[in-house]
Specification:
The protein is mainly α and 313 residues long. The protein is built from 13 helices and no strands. Helix 3 runs antiparallel to helix 4 and helix 8 packs across helix 9.
Length: 313
């Protein structure tokens, strides 16, 4: 797996950012555990159910807001209103049918958010019609015409399919997370001791050069990897002595794991809550198409971050 290419290079140029063929299988296996949580959120014990609903919604509020932002093309005010509509409906217990979603809660979630978005658009259209009629009646010096009182309704926008909604989120969120990860890597590199053999070479420079070389070769239709990639990096960085292929592979492997660790940190930071649970971060990796990038760093990162979280009550 190559280094993530997400700085100034548009995300569309890195095909591996998109969902892999394993996406649906991975996601369904991971989210299957949510069914039991949803059943608790709609149990007969109202107090227990309300606690479970609040906890469950807090886990998914970030996802709800991201879907709403994609539907509203970045209109934060409207997206927040949709998220509030969802919260009210969920806390009132109106999502009991989601317990039969066979672990595919995010698919149910997307459908629900789209329905709330359509409801809000219809409401805005009705309000606009009423206001237009009132304005016409109050217009000075002339009588309002019948046509002015019954303006034609513009059609509601078509709602995107689930796959399109996922794609919008990845294209808007993934590049920002990658840029932040590269910035974090630059900060990390500045804090490290200089390399004894190459004192001016930082991990950031090394991985950046690999990424730029891979991206340029991919754009030219001539993929670059293996010893050819090693040779290209030696040329661009003017390393003397040049890195051997074995040393290049070792540095690249270690650097990729460090990059993945920082990427996971940035994904965690993208949540609204201060300390999202590990399962939510894993879900987000899959939803954003990052799980293949982080798979080698994931076990250790997961263990380290689980130990820092408070135990579930």
């Amino acid at each position: 797996m190559g280094i993530c290419q997400g700085r100034p290079v548009p995300i569309q140029k890195s095909r591996s950012i998109y969902m892999s063929d394993q996406y649906n299988k991975d996601f369904d296996e991971l989210s299957a555990t949510r069914s039991e949580m949803l059943r608790q959120a709609h149990s007969q014990d109202e107090a227990e159910a309300m606690r479970a609903r609040e906890a469950f919604f807090l886990k998914y509020r970030t996802a709800v807001l991201r879907y709403a932002l994609s539907l509203t093309h970045g209109n934060l005010d409207t997206a927040e209103e949709i998220a509030q509509d969802f919260a009210r409906a969920f806390l009132e217990g109106r999502f009991a049918n989601a317990t039969g979603a066979n672990g595919r809660f995010r698919y149910y979630l997307k459908t629900s958010v789209k329905n709330l978005f359509r409801d809000r658009m219809e409401k805005q259209q009705r309000n606009q019609k009423r206001h237009t009629s009132l304005d016409s009646l109050m217009e000075e010096d002339r009588e309002a015409s019948i046509e002015a009182l019954t303006p034609s309704e513009s059609p509601l926008p078509d709602l995107p399919a689930d796959e399109e909604l996922d794609r919008r989120i990845r294209e808007s969120l993934a590049p920002a997370i990658l840029r932040q990860t590269w910035n974090a890597l630059a900060d990390y590199s500045r804090r490290q001791k200089p390399d004894l053999t190459y004192p001016s070479l930082t991990l950031y420079q090394f991985l950046w050069t690999i990424s730029e070389s891979e991206a340029a070769a991919h754009q030219a239709g001539t993929p670059l990897k293996g010893e050819a990639l090693c040779q290209k990096v030696n040329e661009v960085l003017a390393l003397n002595p040049p890195l051997s292929y074995a040393s290049f592979r070792q540095r690249k492997s270690r650097g990729s794991i460090e990059f993945a660790r920082l990427l996971l940190d940035e994904i965690r930071s993208s949540f609204e809550c201060a300390d999202p649970d590990i399962d939510m971060i894993e879900e987000e990796c899959i939803a954003l198409g990052f799980h293949k990038y982080v798979e080698r760093a994931w076990p250790q990162w997961k263990t380290s971050n689980q130990s820092s979280q408070p135990a579930a009550s």
